[in-house]
Write a structure and sequence with these properties.
Blueprint (H helix, E strand, L loop, with lengths): L1 H22 L13 H14 L3 H12 L13 H11 L1
Helix pairs in contact: 1-2, 3-4
Length: about 90
Amino acid sequence: MNEKIEVVQYVSKMYRDVKLQMKEGERPQAKKYMLDREAEFVSYIDQIVSLLPREYELIIRYDFLEEREKKWWQKYFKKSTYYRKKSKAI
């Protein structure tokens, strides 16, 4: 399980870095026919995550892809449910 978390964390860091660069204007925004590899990568990750069941999508987005407060999940899950679903999401 530790290896899976490391992979998700690595991909998430790349995702956040590219999104930040695009937001700050360092990278061109994705265009209809001309995507650079990084923008295409972000698009693929967004598409993949959007295909997950809603509860898993929330966990991946809020724990890894977006910066949220640490206990964001308390609004949606009990502690044991959150950790069980997080394990499945990863």
